[in-house]
Specification:
alpha+beta; Arc Repressor Mutant, subunit A; Alpha-Beta Plaits; 2 domains; four-stranded antiparallel beta sheet; 6 helices; 4 strands
């Protein structure tokens, strides 16, 4: 689906779903003033077009840390020696399967990648660094910033300007 095929109703549905994906089809339909069957068809089309990647529960790492007794979030800058497409893709392929890597962005200018990682503690971070960065000969520099407080987390795409 190209952007010009998403009308105002689709945008409204996307806005509602990214705020609360647990809303029932009936509730969604009522809020955007369409019938429930039409709502189902539209959401199916939005999924098939890839505009809706998946629906998940967003957990609170801070509250879970209190329950589990641990938790460390780090923002990690990675600079590579070689930045050819094959080297960038190789690095992505190396970090993507690791469950501790929550987000991976190729960025410019500055470092080549920014990662958001969540691990149990500093020992687990050191193991991750060894596994993903130290053992990779193409990684030139790693700079980690450890979160002491998450002031805002909003996994929402701005749809209206």
């Amino acid at each position: 689906m190209e952007q010009n095929y998403a009308d105002a109703t689709d945008i409204s549905l996307l806005e509602l779903l990214q705020t609360d994906a647990s809303l029932s089809n009936q509730s969604l339909a009522e809020r955007v003033h369409i019938s429930p069957p039409t709502c189902l068809r539209r959401i199916k089309r939005l999924r098939e077009a890839g505009l809706i990647e998946r629906e998940i529960a967003v957990l609170s790492p801070d509250k879970l840390a209190a329950v589990l007794g641990y938790g460390l979030t780090a923002l990690v800058e990675i600079s590579l020696d070689r930045q050819g497409a094959e080297w960038l893709e190789a690095f992505e392929a190396r970090v993507m399967p690791d469950d501790a890597v929550q987000q991976c962005y190729q960025v410019s200018p500055g470092p080549d990648f920014m990662l958001v990682v969540h691990v149990a503690d500093m020992r687990a971070y050191l193991a991750l660094a060894q596994r993903l960065f130290t053992s990779d000969a193409n990684v030139r520099n790693v700079k980690a910033f450890f979160s002491i407080k998450r002031a805002k987390f909003q996994p929402k795409v701005l749809l209206a300007q």
